[in-house]
Amino acid sequence: MTTELLDIQPSELKFTFELKKQSSCAIILGNKSNQYLAFKVKTTSPKKYCVRPNTGIINPNATCDFTVIMQAQRVAPLDLQCKDKFLIQCTGVPAETTEEDITSELFSKDGEKYVEERKLRVVLISPSPSPVLLPFNGESKQDPCYETLVLKDKVPSGVENVPPHKKTVKDFEGFEPTMDQDELRAANEMEARPTTEDVEEPKPAKDGLLLNLNKDFKELTSKLNIVDSKLKEAELTILKLTEEKSKNIKERDMLKHELEMLKKNNNMKDVQVGFPLLFVFMVALIGLVAGYFVHP
Questions:
Q1: CA-to-CA distance for 242 and 237, rounded, in angstroms?
Q2: Which of 17, 137, 256, 296 is 20 to 30 A from 270 via CA?
Q3: Angle formed at CA 175 by CA 173 and CA 179, multiple of 5 degrees
Q4: Average pLDDT of the chain?
């Protein structure tokens, strides 16, 4: 098969190189065929880069993109020359194929299955200089040198689309499957501990930040202690008020009981004071009868 299955943009991976900083590059894969394509990304330095996603399926006449992240480097290569390379493999698959079905055996060249392999080289570029503002007639304008650099960067480089030649096994030796970010983090944790040369001295800015954090922590601790003491005082006050309330309730109950007893005693005294009406009537009747007989 001489027709290319993939259209890869851009044709090389360009990373803006800065010490101790990550850099990323996006690659767009275009499916130029009428069939479903499965792809896999490999690299010669799997611990230096992570790819998200490193495998996938592209629908017919559609596009798919993945991002390559270069980990932060401690040492800059000489003249920003990099020999790292990436290999993109793709092959036709049935429509019902899922990403879980993509394995290394899928891209093995056996039988009549066609596997397209495309190599991409890594290019390191230095950070673009910031525009320099020069005073001109009382106004700030950009330096013409900066505008020239920007114009040069915007000129597209003519890349000839050369049909893939017949490759041998030696062309792709040294490529290994790429890892995503989680796999790369796990691999770095399994490596040996860093030597004394890798350990950096703490920077003054970090020390100042730690001092400020410690100061803020102490202030928060003191405030929390004050709040705790106030809460304890409030609990004691509530406890005292509760005890006083219970005492007042008991005293009120006792006063009610004494009042009832007094009412009962008053009722008994009212009953005992004076004579019954019948008794008075009988005494008066007896007095009248006696008077009648004494004075006829």
A1: 9
A2: 256
A3: 165
A4: 78
- Most confident of the following: 56-70, 132-146, 255-269, 281-295: 56-70
Please state, in angstroms and rounded to a whole number, the distance separating the CA atoms of residues 57 and 66: 12
Q: Please give the structure tokens belonging to residue 240.
A: 């005292």
Between CA 136 and CA 146 the distance in angstroms is: 16
Instruction: Outline where DSSP puts E strands in the chain.
Output: 6-9, 13-16, 23-31, 36-43, 49-52, 55-58, 63-70, 85-93, 115-125, 133-136, 139-142, 176-177
| pTM score of the predicted model | 0.48
How many other CB atoms sit within 10 Å of the CB of residue 117?
Answer: 18
Whether 74 and 31 have beta carbons less than 8 Å apart is answered as: no
Question: Could you tell me the sign of the dihedral formed by the alpha carbons of 267, 268, 274, 277, in that order?
Answer: positive
Model confidence at 158, pLDDT cuts 50, 70, 90, reads: very low
- Alpha carbons 48 and 86: distance in angstroms, whole number: 12
